[in-house]
Description:
The structure is a homodimer.
Chain A: H1 4-7, H2 12-20, E1 25-27, H3 30-33, E2 51-54, H4 58-71, E3 75-78, E4 95-98, E5 105-108, E6 113-116, H5 122-131, E7 134-135, H6 148-154, H7 161-164, E8 171-177, E9 183-187, H8 199-203, E10 212-219, E11 221-222, E12 228-234, H9 237-250, E13 255-260, H10 261-271, E14 281-287, H11 295-306, E15 311-314, H12 318-329, H13 331-336, E16 340-343, H14 353-367, E17 371-376, E18 381-388, H15 393-412, H16 428-450
Parallel strand pairs in A: 2-4, 3-4
Antiparallel strand pairs in A: 1-2, 5-6, 6-10, 7-11, 8-9, 8-10, 12-14, 12-15, 13-14, 13-17, 16-18, 17-18
Helix pairs in contact in A: 2-4, 9-11, 9-14, 14-15
Amino acid sequence: MVDQTATGAAKPxxxxxxxxxxxxxxxxxxxxxxxxxxxxxxxxxxxxxxxxVLAERTEHVQAVMRWATANGIPVVPRGxxxxxxxxxxxxxxxxxxxxxRMRGLSIDETTRTAVVQPGLMNAEVKAAAAEVGLWYPPDxxxxxxxxxxxxxxTNAGGLCCVKYGVTTDYVLGIEVVLADGRAxxxxxxxxxxxxxxxxxxxxxGSEGTLGIITEITLRLLPAxxxxxxxxxxxxxxxxxxxxxxxxxxxxxxxxxEYMDGVSxxxxxxxxxxxxxxxxxxxxxxxSDDRSPTGEEVAIMLxxxxxxxxxxxxxxxxxxxxxxxAHARRIAxxxxxxxxxxxxxxxxxxxxxxxxxxSGVERIAAENDVTIAFIAHAGDGNTHPLVVVDLEDRDMxxxxxxxxxxxxxxxxDLGGTITxxxxxxRLKRPWLVDQIGDxxxxxxxxxxxxxxxxxxxxxxxxxxx
Amino acid sequence: MVDQTATGAAKPxxxxxxxxxxxxxxxxxxxxxxxxxxxxxxxxxxxxxxxxVLAERTEHVQAVMRWATANGIPVVPRGxxxxxxxxxxxxxxxxxxxxxRMRGLSIDETTRTAVVQPGLMNAEVKAAAAEVGLWYPPDxxxxxxxxxxxxxxTNAGGLCCVKYGVTTDYVLGIEVVLADGRAxxxxxxxxxxxxxxxxxxxxxGSEGTLGIITEITLRLLPAxxxxxxxxxxxxxxxxxxxxxxxxxxxxxxxxxEYMDGVSxxxxxxxxxxxxxxxxxxxxxxxSDDRSPTGEEVAIMLxxxxxxxxxxxxxxxxxxxxxxxAHARRIAxxxxxxxxxxxxxxxxxxxxxxxxxxSGVERIAAENDVTIAFIAHAGDGNTHPLVVVDLEDRDMxxxxxxxxxxxxxxxxDLGGTITxxxxxxRLKRPWLVDQIGDxxxxxxxxxxxxxxxxxxxxxxxxxxx
Lengths: 464, 464
């Protein structure tokens, strides 16, 4: 439905777009476009978009891009809006191109691949694969409400990545619509293909700045063995960090997660499952290795004990283990009950983990803010969650300072400002500090080569 | 040593280069540069280079590129010269930049990473990792004589890739010298990092066309379990192909290799290990999974039997299994005894494998040439080897026609012209047929953005 009064649809360009998309819903009135202005990062600088296009087919995306190029109008691609770095914040006078209605899916058991459209949820892809005994590994904690298109656009991670890798490791092919509206196919259901530059891997994680991905060919694996879960409780974050480092060095756990006291308490408020509110840290680890000696579980228990766990045990069964994994997965929503969050995603090499943890504790104390600390500890990717009352302007200032200081700390430790969420708009100011002027310049050149007019998601990764 | 007479070193530019590299060996006389003119592909169109620079440090590579940019002179980077697509063929009036003397290596057990310089052999990296109980998986059959820098430049594969992935899956960071001489670091010892465009993955497999990689941070894994090896003999290639497809669909073997009758005979000539000369195909498969039921081995044997193997068995022990893996690894040198080879590297989705095999048999018959057929069958990556007597001009013509027809066939089957060797110079004419004009155009734009003067390995991937 087009509200002509509110949007000034009399202007030729938008009418032209609507005419070019006769069967597509194009939202233009402020009430309809409101839910499409921001993602889960709650970027406070979002604009009101000119229109939201609910594309259903690749041709629709092509029509939008041809029109946008002809008129020099920015386009922000949007999956499920679950992004945590403001990569889908609407920009002034721009189009939000939602892929939520592009939900095609087919699975080929003989090549063990899935061909999916971007609007499916990650969990839907997993479920469809599981129905035929196959497995799509990447598992962001938000699997139920994040889209596979967004996963590819951000090269999303998750809990199993410590052993099974991230999204890019499972993308065999894509169809992508370029800035000028051409649709290009790259890769396909081949496990090895080195014909030409690896444009495939370049598009993965490009956050909609180089093109809009309209179809994805995913590699699937046979279903994994049921995991064994080991739990360790610690009365100091340093001890927990040391145990994590030892496990990561010796074996390949299929999950190695960390929660601090704040997040333990928040999750216990939610689930009342008997988590220890007095603990400083909880480590939840898994093994799906089936060596006859069961040695991975033994190594994990041994590491917990030697680093002073106050308690550690293997869970009774798969279901009991799943309760602890679930506790970790709902940590962000649980901590959100304490206030609005500035969500971090910093990562360091494993041996630097204890220094990152203690540094964040110091930053919290110095700025007088609460920072919950959860982590995909096994790959050094952490989520400090800065809790903030948005009505309290001084607290907002202190929280924002903490947010920047945590990224500065990660960079000082040789780490990254984002392990799996993406740079988006919120982390862009810190990007150059991490990668340096020269690499940013090279990246800019690639951006300009593919999007010379700068209409693809301006402000994300690169300054608008 | 500079032979001033032979090279015309009086010309200012080359003198300038030599002056800029006081401690570096720069070869200019034809005798010294001869071994650096071609790689293992035996490209017949190689030129005489202006000079060969034996760089020892990143600064040397930078000096070469600054000079090359200032003077518009092409630079061909060269690892160990084991490339099979002519990616290191010398170009007229250009520099060959050899990284063979850049051999630094350090391993960090706590982050389970290796930092290596490009001149080390793949096998040397593997051996250094193994010394501390770690494992670098990618294993080209040429591991003993291919450099890790070349592996990264071509995104090399190998036998274990069917389960453990290819080179790009293990590259966490690089230092790369750009066309203008700037050295840039990308990535580092972090398992997850999505800060900015994935320039890292773009440089991997770019065959020296975007920059020259001078240092690599590699991810290592804990040492794998000793594998169990299963062998199947077949009297038809179709039956063997069907068995491979079934195994690849049901489980994740750690190796799944194929040899045809020609290559079996050639290897038996070499090893006299008792291979069956009357067989049409040999499949060598491995499992390093340790499920208590040993089910992977049972599934492989079952697949062999159900698809009519004339004989199949699990080898007696690890050493016996290694004999069969070795037989497969030496297949290319063994077939080389029959004549010069035009080496193919085409790949298809597994279900198309039987059609690729029968198509190559047809091409061999129609052109009256011998084509041996070996394959990393489990990932659909095959190496038809066209045997040719270079003195027989008619046979050369028929062999070259076969070489092109095999790539055409792979493209018709939805496959790739190169799974792991790279496009180089020899496969460039077919690249556009596989990836299409639009994707080639996009790739060209990226190339021009990073190498505007076109001095980096001209003729490889992109027309000079």
